[in-house]
Amino acid sequence: MTDAKILNIGFDDTDSPKGMCTTFLAYKIVDLLKKQNTQFLDFPKLIRFNPNIPWKTRGNGAVSLKIRTKNPSKIKNQIKQIVEKYSDIKNGANPGLVFYENDTIPKQFTKFSKLALWQLINRKQAKIFATKNNLEFFYQGNGQGLIGAIGAIGYDFKDHTLELLSYRKNSKFGKKRKLFTQSVKIMQEKTFPYTFNSFDVKKNRILITPHGPDPVFYGVRGENVDSLLHATKILKTDEKLAGYMIFKSNQGTGDHLKNELNIENMKPYASGKITGVISNEAKIVKGGHVFFSISSDGHELWCAVYKPTGMSSVALGLIKGDKVCVGGGIRKASKNHPRILNLEFIDVMYLEKNLVNSNPICSKCNKKMKSKGKNQGYQCIKCSKKSTNKIILEIPRNIKKQLYLPNVSAHRHLSRPLQRIGRVNKESKFDESISWFHIYGN
Considering the domain boundaries, does residue 431 fall inside one? Predict the structure, then answer.
Protein backbone atom coordinates (compact mmCIF):
# COMPACT_ATOMS: atom_id res chain seq x y z
CA MET A 1 0.00 0.00 0.00
CA THR A 2 2.09 2.90 -1.32
CA ASP A 3 1.86 6.36 0.29
CA ALA A 4 -0.02 4.79 3.18
CA LYS A 5 0.45 5.90 6.76
CA ILE A 6 0.42 3.89 9.96
CA LEU A 7 -2.19 5.10 12.41
CA ASN A 8 -2.47 4.14 16.09
CA ILE A 9 -5.91 4.72 17.60
CA GLY A 10 -6.58 4.61 21.35
CA PHE A 11 -9.88 5.10 23.19
CA ASP A 12 -11.38 4.50 26.63
CA ASP A 13 -14.21 5.27 29.07
CA THR A 14 -17.05 4.99 26.58
CA ASP A 15 -19.23 2.83 28.84
CA SER A 16 -21.21 3.39 32.03
CA PRO A 17 -22.79 1.08 34.63
CA LYS A 18 -26.02 1.39 32.65
CA GLY A 19 -24.75 0.29 29.25
CA MET A 20 -22.41 0.17 26.27
CA CYS A 21 -18.85 -1.17 26.23
CA THR A 22 -15.50 0.11 24.96
CA THR A 23 -14.76 -3.23 23.29
CA PHE A 24 -18.12 -3.08 21.48
CA LEU A 25 -17.17 0.34 20.15
CA ALA A 26 -13.92 -1.24 18.89
CA TYR A 27 -15.98 -4.00 17.24
CA LYS A 28 -18.07 -1.36 15.44
CA ILE A 29 -14.96 0.56 14.34
CA VAL A 30 -13.31 -2.59 13.00
CA ASP A 31 -16.48 -3.53 11.13
CA LEU A 32 -16.53 -0.09 9.45
CA LEU A 33 -12.81 -0.14 8.58
CA LYS A 34 -12.93 -3.67 7.20
CA LYS A 35 -15.68 -2.62 4.80
CA GLN A 36 -13.23 0.00 3.51
CA ASN A 37 -10.48 -2.62 3.04
CA THR A 38 -8.31 -1.06 5.74
CA GLN A 39 -5.17 -3.04 6.55
CA PHE A 40 -4.88 -4.12 10.20
CA LEU A 41 -1.34 -4.65 11.52
CA ASP A 42 -2.15 -6.46 14.78
CA PHE A 43 -5.01 -7.74 16.86
CA PRO A 44 -7.08 -5.03 18.55
CA LYS A 45 -5.50 -4.53 21.98
CA LEU A 46 -7.55 -4.68 25.17
CA ILE A 47 -5.44 -3.29 28.02
CA ARG A 48 -6.59 -3.49 31.63
CA PHE A 49 -5.12 -0.80 33.87
CA ASN A 50 -4.84 -0.39 37.66
CA PRO A 51 -7.90 -2.21 39.08
CA ASN A 52 -7.66 -0.38 42.41
CA ILE A 53 -8.76 3.03 41.08
CA PRO A 54 -12.12 3.73 42.82
CA TRP A 55 -13.69 5.56 39.84
CA LYS A 56 -12.53 3.08 37.21
CA THR A 57 -14.89 1.79 34.53
CA ARG A 58 -16.25 -1.76 34.99
CA GLY A 59 -13.09 -3.60 33.93
CA ASN A 60 -10.82 -0.55 33.63
CA GLY A 61 -10.03 -1.63 30.08
CA ALA A 62 -8.93 0.56 27.17
CA VAL A 63 -8.59 -0.40 23.50
CA SER A 64 -6.10 0.46 20.76
CA LEU A 65 -5.94 -0.36 17.04
CA LYS A 66 -3.00 -0.22 14.64
CA ILE A 67 -3.80 0.18 10.95
CA ARG A 68 -2.27 1.23 7.64
CA THR A 69 -4.30 3.67 5.57
CA LYS A 70 -3.97 6.12 2.67
CA ASN A 71 -6.61 8.41 4.12
CA PRO A 72 -6.00 8.90 7.87
CA SER A 73 -8.02 12.14 8.00
CA LYS A 74 -11.17 10.43 6.73
CA ILE A 75 -10.78 7.56 9.20
CA LYS A 76 -10.20 9.93 12.11
CA ASN A 77 -13.44 11.76 11.37
CA GLN A 78 -15.34 8.48 11.05
CA ILE A 79 -14.01 7.21 14.35
CA LYS A 80 -14.87 10.46 16.15
CA GLN A 81 -18.45 10.04 14.96
CA ILE A 82 -18.60 6.42 16.15
CA VAL A 83 -17.18 7.36 19.57
CA GLU A 84 -19.86 10.05 19.93
CA LYS A 85 -22.58 7.62 18.83
CA TYR A 86 -21.63 4.63 20.99
CA SER A 87 -20.41 6.38 24.18
CA ASP A 88 -22.91 6.36 27.05
CA ILE A 89 -22.21 9.99 27.95
CA LYS A 90 -25.68 10.68 29.40
CA ASN A 91 -25.02 8.04 32.09
CA GLY A 92 -21.52 9.18 33.06
CA ALA A 93 -19.12 7.99 30.35
CA ASN A 94 -16.09 10.28 29.85
CA PRO A 95 -14.65 9.10 26.53
CA GLY A 96 -11.13 9.90 25.42
CA LEU A 97 -9.77 9.36 21.89
CA VAL A 98 -6.14 9.63 20.76
CA PHE A 99 -4.50 9.36 17.32
CA TYR A 100 -0.78 8.83 16.77
CA GLU A 101 0.72 8.48 13.28
CA ASN A 102 3.90 6.43 13.50
CA ASP A 103 5.02 2.82 13.31
CA THR A 104 7.34 3.14 16.32
CA ILE A 105 5.90 3.96 19.72
CA PRO A 106 8.22 6.29 21.72
CA LYS A 107 9.49 5.30 25.16
CA GLN A 108 7.51 8.04 26.89
CA PHE A 109 4.27 6.33 25.79
CA THR A 110 5.44 3.05 27.29
CA LYS A 111 6.45 4.76 30.54
CA PHE A 112 3.04 6.46 30.80
CA SER A 113 1.28 3.14 30.15
CA LYS A 114 3.36 1.29 32.75
CA LEU A 115 2.55 3.89 35.41
CA ALA A 116 -1.17 3.67 34.60
CA LEU A 117 -0.94 -0.06 35.26
CA TRP A 118 -0.14 0.34 38.97
CA GLN A 119 -0.37 4.00 39.95
CA LEU A 120 -2.99 6.72 40.11
CA ILE A 121 -2.67 9.03 37.09
CA ASN A 122 -5.03 11.98 36.89
CA ARG A 123 -6.63 13.36 33.74
CA LYS A 124 -4.62 16.60 33.97
CA GLN A 125 -1.42 14.57 33.56
CA ALA A 126 -2.93 12.86 30.50
CA LYS A 127 -3.88 16.16 28.87
CA ILE A 128 -0.39 17.57 29.51
CA PHE A 129 1.17 14.41 28.02
CA ALA A 130 -1.02 14.59 24.91
CA THR A 131 -0.21 18.27 24.34
CA LYS A 132 3.51 17.85 24.99
CA ASN A 133 3.73 14.95 22.50
CA ASN A 134 1.67 16.72 19.80
CA LEU A 135 -1.06 14.08 19.85
CA GLU A 136 -4.40 14.54 18.20
CA PHE A 137 -6.80 13.97 21.05
CA PHE A 138 -10.49 14.45 21.69
CA TYR A 139 -12.61 13.95 24.77
CA GLN A 140 -16.04 14.51 26.22
CA GLY A 141 -17.07 14.96 29.82
CA ASN A 142 -14.07 15.37 32.10
CA GLY A 143 -11.59 13.61 29.80
CA GLN A 144 -10.90 10.68 32.13
CA GLY A 145 -10.76 8.37 29.10
CA LEU A 146 -7.58 10.02 27.80
CA ILE A 147 -5.50 8.13 30.39
CA GLY A 148 -6.49 4.71 29.04
CA ALA A 149 -6.45 5.91 25.41
CA ILE A 150 -2.79 6.96 25.66
CA GLY A 151 -1.88 3.94 27.77
CA ALA A 152 -3.46 1.46 25.34
CA ILE A 153 -1.29 2.76 22.50
CA GLY A 154 1.88 2.66 24.60
CA TYR A 155 1.49 -0.72 26.31
CA ASP A 156 4.62 -2.85 26.01
CA PHE A 157 3.71 -6.56 26.15
CA LYS A 158 6.16 -8.81 27.98
CA ASP A 159 3.44 -11.47 28.16
CA HIS A 160 -0.07 -11.54 26.76
CA THR A 161 -3.25 -13.53 26.40
CA LEU A 162 -6.10 -13.40 23.90
CA GLU A 163 -9.81 -12.89 24.53
CA LEU A 164 -12.66 -13.71 22.18
CA LEU A 165 -15.58 -11.41 22.93
CA SER A 166 -18.93 -12.38 21.47
CA TYR A 167 -21.52 -9.64 20.99
CA ARG A 168 -25.31 -9.61 21.14
CA LYS A 169 -27.80 -8.23 18.67
CA ASN A 170 -29.17 -4.80 19.64
CA SER A 171 -32.59 -6.26 20.44
CA LYS A 172 -31.05 -8.39 23.20
CA PHE A 173 -29.21 -5.61 25.07
CA GLY A 174 -30.20 -5.62 28.74
CA LYS A 175 -31.97 -8.99 28.59
CA LYS A 176 -30.93 -12.04 30.59
CA ARG A 177 -28.13 -14.11 29.07
CA LYS A 178 -28.85 -17.82 28.69
CA LEU A 179 -25.69 -19.88 28.31
CA PHE A 180 -25.95 -23.58 29.14
CA THR A 181 -23.88 -24.26 32.25
CA GLN A 182 -22.83 -27.78 31.26
CA SER A 183 -21.46 -26.53 27.93
CA VAL A 184 -19.18 -24.04 29.72
CA LYS A 185 -17.95 -26.76 32.06
CA ILE A 186 -17.21 -29.09 29.13
CA MET A 187 -15.54 -26.27 27.20
CA GLN A 188 -13.17 -25.60 30.07
CA GLU A 189 -12.27 -29.28 30.35
CA LYS A 190 -11.75 -29.71 26.59
CA THR A 191 -9.63 -26.57 26.08
CA PHE A 192 -7.50 -26.71 29.28
CA PRO A 193 -4.78 -25.41 29.69
CA TYR A 194 -5.17 -23.12 26.67
CA THR A 195 -8.20 -21.25 28.05
CA PHE A 196 -8.58 -20.07 31.63
CA ASN A 197 -11.04 -18.78 34.25
CA SER A 198 -14.16 -19.85 32.38
CA PHE A 199 -15.93 -21.88 35.07
CA ASP A 200 -15.69 -22.13 38.87
CA VAL A 201 -16.10 -25.83 39.59
CA LYS A 202 -16.38 -25.31 43.37
CA LYS A 203 -19.29 -22.90 43.06
CA ASN A 204 -20.70 -24.36 39.81
CA ARG A 205 -20.58 -20.83 38.45
CA ILE A 206 -20.09 -19.49 34.91
CA LEU A 207 -17.31 -16.87 34.76
CA ILE A 208 -17.40 -15.80 31.10
CA THR A 209 -20.69 -13.87 31.01
CA PRO A 210 -21.07 -10.30 32.32
CA HIS A 211 -24.11 -9.43 34.41
CA GLY A 212 -24.86 -5.91 33.22
CA PRO A 213 -26.79 -4.50 30.25
CA ASP A 214 -23.72 -4.16 28.01
CA PRO A 215 -23.53 -5.72 24.49
CA VAL A 216 -21.10 -8.53 25.43
CA PHE A 217 -22.64 -12.00 25.62
CA TYR A 218 -19.51 -13.87 26.73
CA GLY A 219 -15.73 -13.55 26.72
CA VAL A 220 -13.37 -16.54 26.53
CA ARG A 221 -9.75 -15.93 27.60
CA GLY A 222 -6.90 -18.08 26.35
CA GLU A 223 -3.44 -18.49 24.87
CA ASN A 224 -4.09 -18.83 21.13
CA VAL A 225 -6.69 -18.25 18.43
CA ASP A 226 -7.36 -21.94 17.70
CA SER A 227 -8.30 -22.68 21.33
CA LEU A 228 -10.69 -19.72 21.44
CA LEU A 229 -12.41 -20.73 18.20
CA HIS A 230 -12.65 -24.32 19.45
CA ALA A 231 -14.27 -23.02 22.66
CA THR A 232 -16.99 -21.18 20.75
CA LYS A 233 -17.99 -24.40 18.98
CA ILE A 234 -18.53 -26.14 22.35
CA LEU A 235 -20.53 -23.37 24.06
CA LYS A 236 -24.32 -23.72 23.71
CA THR A 237 -26.96 -20.98 23.75
CA ASP A 238 -30.38 -20.42 22.19
CA GLU A 239 -29.57 -16.80 21.46
CA LYS A 240 -28.48 -15.77 17.97
CA LEU A 241 -25.37 -13.63 18.38
CA ALA A 242 -24.21 -10.73 16.22
CA GLY A 243 -20.52 -11.60 15.90
CA TYR A 244 -17.19 -11.79 17.71
CA MET A 245 -13.74 -10.20 17.82
CA ILE A 246 -10.45 -11.45 19.29
CA PHE A 247 -8.35 -9.05 21.33
CA LYS A 248 -4.71 -9.21 22.40
CA SER A 249 -4.67 -8.42 26.10
CA ASN A 250 -2.69 -8.21 29.34
CA GLN A 251 -5.46 -10.12 31.17
CA GLY A 252 -4.20 -13.06 33.20
CA THR A 253 -0.63 -11.73 33.25
CA GLY A 254 -0.53 -10.30 36.78
CA ASP A 255 1.41 -7.35 35.34
CA HIS A 256 -0.15 -4.85 37.79
CA LEU A 257 1.49 -6.66 40.73
CA LYS A 258 5.04 -6.87 39.38
CA ASN A 259 6.05 -3.48 40.76
CA GLU A 260 7.91 -3.54 44.10
CA LEU A 261 6.13 -1.41 46.68
CA ASN A 262 8.11 0.60 49.21
CA ILE A 263 7.53 3.44 51.66
CA GLU A 264 8.03 6.06 48.92
CA ASN A 265 5.67 4.67 46.26
CA MET A 266 3.06 3.08 48.53
CA LYS A 267 0.48 5.74 47.79
CA PRO A 268 -3.32 5.30 47.93
CA TYR A 269 -4.68 3.02 45.18
CA ALA A 270 -1.19 1.83 44.11
CA SER A 271 -0.89 -1.82 43.07
CA GLY A 272 2.17 -4.02 43.54
CA LYS A 273 3.94 -6.50 45.79
CA ILE A 274 6.05 -6.34 48.92
CA THR A 275 8.18 -8.85 50.83
CA GLY A 276 8.28 -8.85 54.61
CA VAL A 277 8.14 -10.79 57.86
CA ILE A 278 4.94 -11.35 59.85
CA SER A 279 5.00 -8.89 62.76
CA ASN A 280 1.43 -9.25 64.06
CA GLU A 281 -0.39 -12.54 63.74
CA ALA A 282 -3.73 -12.70 61.96
CA LYS A 283 -6.97 -11.56 63.52
CA ILE A 284 -10.37 -12.50 62.16
CA VAL A 285 -13.10 -9.85 62.21
CA LYS A 286 -16.85 -9.80 61.66
CA GLY A 287 -17.68 -11.11 58.21
CA GLY A 288 -14.79 -13.57 58.16
CA HIS A 289 -12.16 -11.11 56.90
CA VAL A 290 -8.61 -11.48 58.22
CA PHE A 291 -5.99 -8.83 59.05
CA PHE A 292 -2.28 -9.24 59.83
CA SER A 293 0.81 -7.06 59.54
CA ILE A 294 4.25 -7.49 58.02
CA SER A 295 7.50 -5.67 58.67
CA SER A 296 9.52 -4.60 55.62
CA ASP A 297 12.63 -2.39 55.71
CA GLY A 298 11.73 -1.24 59.21
CA HIS A 299 8.17 -0.25 58.31
CA GLU A 300 4.97 -2.04 59.28
CA LEU A 301 2.13 -2.59 56.83
CA TRP A 302 -1.28 -4.03 57.60
CA CYS A 303 -2.67 -6.56 55.12
CA ALA A 304 -6.29 -7.56 54.56
CA VAL A 305 -7.58 -10.89 53.25
CA TYR A 306 -11.28 -10.78 52.45
CA LYS A 307 -13.46 -13.84 52.89
CA PRO A 308 -14.53 -14.21 49.20
CA THR A 309 -10.88 -14.76 48.20
CA GLY A 310 -10.79 -18.09 50.05
CA MET A 311 -7.34 -17.24 51.46
CA SER A 312 -8.50 -16.57 55.03
CA SER A 313 -7.27 -19.94 56.33
CA VAL A 314 -3.82 -19.27 54.83
CA ALA A 315 -3.62 -15.88 56.56
CA LEU A 316 -4.76 -17.40 59.86
CA GLY A 317 -2.02 -20.03 59.56
CA LEU A 318 0.78 -17.44 59.52
CA ILE A 319 2.82 -16.76 62.67
CA LYS A 320 5.43 -14.17 63.67
CA GLY A 321 8.70 -14.71 61.86
CA ASP A 322 7.21 -16.19 58.68
CA LYS A 323 8.50 -14.52 55.53
CA VAL A 324 5.97 -13.76 52.79
CA CYS A 325 5.67 -11.89 49.52
CA VAL A 326 2.18 -10.40 49.19
CA GLY A 327 0.56 -8.52 46.32
CA GLY A 328 -2.48 -6.32 46.01
CA GLY A 329 -3.75 -2.74 46.13
CA ILE A 330 -3.27 -0.02 48.75
CA ARG A 331 -6.45 1.13 50.45
CA LYS A 332 -6.42 4.76 51.50
CA ALA A 333 -6.01 5.42 55.24
CA SER A 334 -8.95 6.86 57.17
CA LYS A 335 -9.54 8.28 60.65
CA ASN A 336 -10.34 4.81 61.97
CA HIS A 337 -8.07 2.62 59.85
CA PRO A 338 -4.42 2.77 58.75
CA ARG A 339 -3.22 2.31 55.19
CA ILE A 340 -3.95 -1.33 54.25
CA LEU A 341 -2.82 -3.64 51.45
CA ASN A 342 -5.83 -5.59 50.10
CA LEU A 343 -4.28 -8.92 49.12
CA GLU A 344 -4.55 -10.68 45.76
CA PHE A 345 -1.93 -13.34 46.52
CA ILE A 346 0.22 -14.70 49.36
CA ASP A 347 3.54 -16.33 48.52
CA VAL A 348 4.92 -18.08 51.63
CA MET A 349 8.71 -17.99 51.36
CA TYR A 350 9.83 -19.14 54.84
CA LEU A 351 8.00 -20.81 57.72
CA GLU A 352 9.18 -20.24 61.28
CA LYS A 353 9.09 -23.26 63.60
CA ASN A 354 6.00 -23.09 65.78
CA LEU A 355 7.47 -23.93 69.19
CA VAL A 356 5.49 -24.04 72.44
CA ASN A 357 6.36 -24.87 76.06
CA SER A 358 4.52 -27.96 77.24
CA ASN A 359 4.25 -30.20 80.25
CA PRO A 360 6.64 -33.18 79.90
CA ILE A 361 5.45 -36.49 78.40
CA CYS A 362 5.69 -39.64 80.52
CA SER A 363 8.16 -41.95 78.76
CA LYS A 364 6.37 -45.03 80.14
CA CYS A 365 2.69 -44.10 79.59
CA ASN A 366 3.13 -41.61 76.74
CA LYS A 367 0.75 -39.27 78.56
CA LYS A 368 1.22 -35.59 79.36
CA MET A 369 2.16 -35.09 83.03
CA LYS A 370 0.24 -32.82 85.38
CA SER A 371 1.73 -29.95 87.37
CA LYS A 372 2.06 -30.62 91.11
CA GLY A 373 1.93 -26.90 91.88
CA LYS A 374 4.18 -23.88 91.57
CA ASN A 375 7.86 -24.89 91.47
CA GLN A 376 6.95 -28.49 92.47
CA GLY A 377 7.51 -30.18 89.12
CA TYR A 378 5.29 -32.59 87.19
CA GLN A 379 3.92 -36.08 87.74
CA CYS A 380 2.21 -38.74 85.65
CA ILE A 381 -1.23 -39.40 87.13
CA LYS A 382 -1.13 -42.98 85.88
CA CYS A 383 2.26 -44.34 86.98
CA SER A 384 3.41 -41.47 89.29
CA LYS A 385 6.66 -40.95 87.39
CA LYS A 386 8.05 -37.43 88.01
CA SER A 387 9.84 -34.72 86.04
CA THR A 388 11.09 -31.26 86.92
CA ASN A 389 11.12 -29.27 83.66
CA LYS A 390 8.75 -28.30 80.86
CA ILE A 391 9.61 -29.39 77.35
CA ILE A 392 9.53 -27.57 74.00
CA LEU A 393 7.18 -29.02 71.38
CA GLU A 394 7.08 -28.18 67.67
CA ILE A 395 3.53 -27.79 66.40
CA PRO A 396 3.10 -28.91 62.76
CA ARG A 397 2.21 -26.04 60.41
CA ASN A 398 -1.00 -26.24 58.39
CA ILE A 399 0.36 -24.15 55.50
CA LYS A 400 3.30 -24.75 53.16
CA LYS A 401 6.02 -22.75 51.42
CA GLN A 402 4.11 -22.05 48.20
CA LEU A 403 2.05 -19.51 46.30
CA TYR A 404 -1.57 -19.12 47.40
CA LEU A 405 -4.11 -17.54 45.03
CA PRO A 406 -7.75 -16.48 45.53
CA ASN A 407 -10.70 -18.62 44.49
CA VAL A 408 -11.11 -18.36 40.73
CA SER A 409 -14.40 -16.46 41.22
CA ALA A 410 -12.48 -13.77 43.11
CA HIS A 411 -9.87 -13.27 40.37
CA ARG A 412 -9.62 -9.89 38.73
CA HIS A 413 -9.16 -9.45 34.99
CA LEU A 414 -5.41 -9.03 35.47
CA SER A 415 -4.96 -11.85 38.02
CA ARG A 416 -2.54 -14.52 36.84
CA PRO A 417 -4.30 -17.90 37.24
CA LEU A 418 -2.42 -20.90 38.60
CA GLN A 419 -2.21 -22.58 35.18
CA ARG A 420 -0.38 -19.53 33.79
CA ILE A 421 2.32 -19.49 36.49
CA GLY A 422 5.62 -19.77 34.61
CA ARG A 423 3.98 -19.33 31.20
CA VAL A 424 5.02 -16.39 29.00
CA ASN A 425 3.18 -15.77 25.75
CA LYS A 426 5.34 -13.45 23.64
CA GLU A 427 4.07 -14.03 20.13
CA SER A 428 0.66 -14.45 18.57
CA LYS A 429 1.01 -14.52 14.82
CA PHE A 430 -1.31 -12.04 13.15
CA ASP A 431 -2.36 -11.80 9.55
CA GLU A 432 -5.62 -10.97 7.82
CA SER A 433 -6.36 -14.63 7.08
CA ILE A 434 -6.81 -15.42 10.77
CA SER A 435 -10.43 -15.62 11.92
CA TRP A 436 -10.02 -12.83 14.50
CA PHE A 437 -13.16 -10.92 13.45
CA HIS A 438 -16.51 -12.27 12.30
CA ILE A 439 -20.06 -11.09 11.76
CA TYR A 440 -22.49 -14.02 11.92
CA GLY A 441 -24.50 -14.42 8.75
CA ASN A 442 -21.71 -12.84 6.67
Answer: no
